[in-house]
Amino acid sequence: MKSTAERFLEYTSVDTTSREESSSCPSSETQWDLARMLETEMREIGLKDVELDEHGYVTGTIPANVEGVPVLGLISHMDTSSAVPGGPIHPKLVDYRGGDILLNRELDLWLKEDEFPELLDYQGKTLIVTDGTTLLGADDKAGIAEILTAAERMMKDTSIRHGQIRICFTPDEEISRGTQYFDVKKFGADAAYTVDGGALGEIEYENFNGATANITIHGRSIHPGMSKGRMLNALMVAWELQGMLPAHEQPSYTEGYEGFYHLSAMSGSVAECSLKYIIRQHDRKEYEAKKARMEKIAAYLNEKYGPGTVELSLRDMYFNMQEIIKDHMHLIDKANAAFKACGVEPRTIPVRGGTDGARLSFMGLPCPNLSTGGHNFHGVFEYIPAESMESMADVLVSLAGEFVKVAQRGEQ
Length: 412
What we know:
With 412 residues, this protein is an alpha+beta fold. The chain has ten helices and 17 strands. The protein is globular and about 85 Å long.
């Protein structure tokens, strides 16, 4: 039987970067490559009802060996972020004994303890790191590897007692389309967990409310030598717009439940400029206030420079799943018990981002998020301890057992 790390390393050989500019689903052809790999592997493990649908969703079933247990869902996503190159990935295994880790000699790039002090927690562990030119892909191929390792154990070891478990691997989570074609009714789970979090032991059921703001600024280009009273520099208007947002409400100044405005992309010229922001806030009222501030700024600039100067398009991406999970806290209790049974101290933390689980929760499938064991996602300093992945596979098996225990006690 493959180890979780072996599975993970196989999956990283496929560059599954999602492409926001694409209108297809999946948004990149290579996601199909991984989907087909997973479909084949799930059949080899012996899962039932294995299906790869026309949108790239891969599903399968672990049949129950205990009756009367609520159907549990386990979900991870196949795509990786486009924030840095997604391939070809050249992972390295490091027998970590402390100190800084050289990722790339040619680039003189190091994973440094003083910058990432949590490394000290992993002395004596095997760390999987990048070569400093790409991300690693633990977000969320580690989750996939952990789910399938747990699934194989449950299929092969009949002494492990569990109800029916439904598995789904989704495309395009990184561009907020992971649930676009997710059929909750067909999936058939009573409750689910995404395995898409960070450090081992994390349990997350609060996330940001999230929106995107796409802005186009229309300027007027005139030769600078003859521009007095005529030119309207779109770039300068963009600068002015950014300056009207609270300086302390940027990602680099916030933590915990604090929200932010994040200028994630900007391009253009004197004649026209485009900006893309993401807006995040845990509290719903404060979230709506942040969007209203952006609208007020756009209205002010249009009054100052003329109607139509600033075009603003705001779109809600997801909402805080705490609104739903507060009525299903037994799911958090089960996750806590599963971690503790495996010798892992659980920690409940707010997600400073969003997950497929947030959207699924509002679609009628309560779905908190669990750790993968990874660190520093979406960048070249990403790493994951192999031992953390093995522990997460243990936790998922234990979690299935928790559903059996409470069902037999006549609880939720």
